[in-house]
Amino acid sequence: MKRRGLVLLLAGWMLAADGAPRTLDWVELLPEGARATYDPAPPAPLHDYLTGEASGLAAQQVMDFAVNEALDGAEVKLPGFIVPLELDEAGKVTEFFLVPFFGACIHVPPPPPNQLVLVTMEQGLSLDSMYTAYSITGRMSIVRTATSLGTSAYTLAGTAAEEYRF
Amino acid sequence: MRAALALALHSVWNRRGTALLTACSIALSVALLWGVLQVREGARNGFAATVSGVDLIVGPRTGPLNLLLYSIFHAGEPTSSVSRASFELVARHPDVAWALPLALGDSHRGYRVLGTTPEYFLHYRYGRRQALVLAEGRAFAEHGELVIGASVARALGYRPGTEAVLAHGLGEGSFAEHEDRFRVVGVLAPTGTPLDRLILADLDDLAHLHGATQSASLTAFLVGMKERPTLLTMQRALNEYRGEALTAIIPGVALNDLWRLVGVADRAMLAIALCVLLAGLIGMTSTLLAALQARRRELAILRSVGARPLDLLGLLTLEAGTLSLAGALMGLLGGRLIIALLATPLESRLGLLLEPSLLDATSAAILCGVTAAGLLAGLLPGVSAYRRSLADGLSMRT
User: Fold this and answer.
1) What is the pTM of this model?
2) Does CATH number 2.40.50.870 belong to domain A2-34+63-163?
3) Interface predicted TM-score (ipTM) of this complex, two decimals
4) Least CB-CB distance to A105: which of B127, B227, B250?
5) What is the distance, to the nearest Å, from the Cα of residue A125 to the centroid of all Cα atoms in its chain?
6) Rounded to a whole number, what is the distance in Å from the CA of B232 to chain A's nearest CA?
7) Where are the domains of chain B?
8) Which residues of A lie closer than 8 Å to B, measured between beta carbons?
């Protein structure tokens, strides 16, 4: 019975997804149950990532990097900052991380895996400054990975990008 | 319409001297426009897309641009090195798919030698994730083997089997030459990137030259993660690593910064190309207008034998269209000829790889655009011929 409800919910979701892309908030990338304790600040490290050494108290913390399964296949619009990964011949960014806060690659610890979206964009995005926030529209997918940080990650096939105005 | 076209062709033929000059001036500006666009494409190909598919570049404590420049563009000098131990630590990490050591410092006749491992040929990507291709021979595998970039091969005339002596440091004829002889076993296909001017050898083989069995320090190393989302955490961990002062950068971020800096030149090239096009079109229109002045009597005679004003409009427009089509074709062919002749010096001296295809989208666009512009330019004298009276042409004094 419970499963049927879920199927109905999903069907309803897909119908809703048919229309205009839904504008997402970063907290919605967390599963329902984890949102109450959502803290936009980056989490404390579980252990030293490089050497794998557990470091005292931090090692006993449980870190939940679960994703919101309902977002798999959804058409969404998500605002964020861009960390360029691949550039095409014309200098346009074709693959990048969309992250909730600026400087996720340099100044501050990186966001947890469920606050990070890997975006591929065929047509590319001309990124003048990493200080500019963009709203990216496209289809979200959840990919299974096997890393020491978590087992799933968000990817987005970007179709449109617009500058985000605060 | 067919009669008009035949008349237009005959009319052009009748004035073939002037017509040839007009077509040549159009051809010149088309060739210039196409050439500028080709150079622009060659320059940007070898730039923004120099490295692809690499998740992190790790070097000693330095700035991101500096690290990118000396590890990928082989420009500038590293200030210090990275320990082999740090490299091994990263290479063995469970989330790391591959790690490529890079060691610079040796040279051969002015070309830099990069010490790495044969895996370099498997994992290094440029452009849109294009893998390296060996045009001749194979990757280095045994002691004393080298692989050379396309420009090196062309400039020095080296082929698989050629022997070379490596020198410590850079310079055409270095004084501290190593005694071991190296042999070329492979030549890379042209990439249009700084790789074309590089010589690759085995890292430990080079360490051997300096009297060590294994290279203890590296210039930098490249890292590929199994899953991209982990790269930010790895970058953070490396930058915070207590064991050694390291700098880990995301190539895309540094490349984007660098491109913003030098992309001005790219846009300047486009502006130059557009100016060339504009100048060419203005020249074409003025030539056609000047020609019309000399043809007032002829047009009036055509009118007197029954040509309607609309026929004259069509005639002049078609003539202009024919001329610009011929000019554009000549220009595109001439441009290709010039680039074919200049390709080798451009590549070896400027590092610009120009490989124009016989028919590309740019040429098609130029052809259509110039012909359309020619037809439009022909309208101007055409309309003025259309509006002139019969008497105007017949009563004129020459």
Assistant:
1) 0.75
2) yes
3) 0.76
4) B250
5) 18
6) 6
7) 2-47+263-394, 56-249
8) 48-51, 83-91, 93-97, 104-105, 109-111, 113, 116, 118, 127-130, 145-149, 153
